[in-house]
TrEMBL record:
The protein's name in its UniProt record: SCO family protein
PANTHER family reported in the protein's UniProt record: ELECTRON TRANSPORT PROTIN SCO1/SENC FAMILY MEMBER, LINALOOL DEHYDRATASE_ISOMERASE DOMAIN-CONTAINING PROTEIN
Stated family: Belongs to the SCO1/2 family.
Gene3D superfamilies: Glutaredoxin
Protein species of origin: Paradevosia tibetensis
């Protein structure tokens, strides 16, 4: 067995574990739309790719998509970012009120400049967000995100993390999710329903 085959197998295992953890997480912890609870509640002080302030108030005022990932992600994050760009294209003018955010779970490597370059290389419709490890921990806790560092070779590491896109209404409240690699037609229909509530 070659080293390349072993590495591909390990990456596949990491993706599988992330998907399983995400599914288990949502089955246990995430309340349904309109259900009481503190899902998403909390205070944090973050920055976007331009260094502008981002707080819990940022997610209010317009319906939005919220995704947690990191720029060194091998497949889930670039795939999801590309999917989001496609959804915006399919929505066209209908999707103008919709906002989208990519929040890093790896603040040690994802500086404002790094996350801005990463997100903008795919689409200008998604805002990259980062901050200090302490403040990122606060937003991860507020949204009950699963995020765990996985040590690798030569001091490198990857991050296991929640792989779904969160849908937020204009009050910044949880309305549902789009699963990783969910059919584009289904995802766009969910976004249309979200926009209709705005």
């Amino acid at each position: 067995m070659t080293l390349r085959t072993i590495r591909i197998g390990l990456w596949a295992a990491v993706v599988a574990l992330a998907l399983i953890a995400t599914a288990a997480y949502f089955l246990v912890k995430v309340p349904g739309p309109g259900q009481p609870g503190t899902f998403g509640a909390g205070s944090y002080s973050l920055v976007d790719g331009n260094g502008g302030p981002v707080t819990e108030a940022t997610f209010k005022g317009a319906p939005s998509m919220l995704f947690f990932g990191y720029t060194h992600c091998p497949d889930v994050c670039p795939t999801t970012l590309s999917d989001m760009a496609v959804w915006f294209q399919e929505l066209g003018d209908e999707g103008k009120p919709l906002k989208a955010y990519f929040v890093t779970v790896d603040p040690e490597r994802d500086t404002p400049a790094v996350i801005k370059d990463y997100v903008s290389s795919v689409t200008d419709r998604v805002t990259g967000i980062t901050g200090t490890p302490e403040e990122i921990a606060k937003i991860i806790s507020a949204w009950r995100i699963y995020a765990k560092k996985v040590p690798g070779e030569d001091g490198e590491y990857t991050m296991d993390h929640t792989a779904s896109v969160f849908l937020l209404n204009s009050k910044g409240e949880f309305e549902g999710t789009i699963a990783y690699q969910e059919a584009s037609s289904v995802a766009v229909e969910k976004l249309r329903k979200l926009l209709a509530k705005a």
